[in-house]
Amino acid sequence: MNRSDPFALARTSVRNTFDRAGASYEAAALLQSNVAAELLSRLEPFAFAPAVVLDLGAGTGRCSAQLKRRYRRAQVLALDLAPGMLQAAARHQRWLRRFECICADAAALPLSAGSVDVIFSNLMLQWCGPPDEVFAEARRVLKPQGFFAFSTFGPDTLCELREAWGEDGHTHVNRFLDVHDIGDALMRAGFAEPVLDVERMTVTYPDALGLMRDLQAIGARNVTAGRARTLTGKGRLRQMRERYETYRRDGTLPATYEVIYAAAWSGRGAAAAPVGDEVFIAPEQISHRRRP
Hints:
By secondary structure, the protein is of the alpha/beta class. The protein is built from 10 helices and 8 strands.
């Protein structure tokens, strides 16, 4: 972890917080489930008949089970950094539709080069810091013309919570990369024909503590290097809640999520594209949608 960067994430801390959330994750992960359903639907137009599918950052295995249902003849690998999440995945196993569980780091995959046909990854990338190592590993393990589909959060995510905490010298919300940064990183890794789009979603809560309880339940705790190392005082917490109240509309408080969906082909055999100050994505390939 780069300790000079206040937003740096320690893999050990990420693993530990998600490890503890294995039992409580699904009850609080409504948004994550909706994003997963959308990402899964984006595989439908492709007539894939994969031999190996990797669910990267599989969590409790709900998507792994759905991938196994869709690609019945495929070997589905559910890979996650947190053992507790994979233990919770057992409830989604079926005798005739079993998937393999692998506890490993997405930046150091224990898989052979060119061994995977499709990689699916739902809302995992934002917990990996800079995406270059993960993208390099994804491209390494994909077969020629393998397919990579993933979702992650963009910079407007939890903007209300970030503003409510204000500036006190500590980080309270993760740093999220924008769609152009993600596109750049895909091109650096040598992926071909990346397509990215953005959707903004809002979850409402009766109060700010409800949001914070949900974040803790899914393992989304603050593990940035710049977080406060002591317990937050009652006065500081009260101030945050009062600031958040300025966002109240129609009796509820909003929590905004900017969701980035991306897909690309492995492009193996093609040289990784150099990246300067420009984004190598056609403008017509990026759309911005807002849910009604």
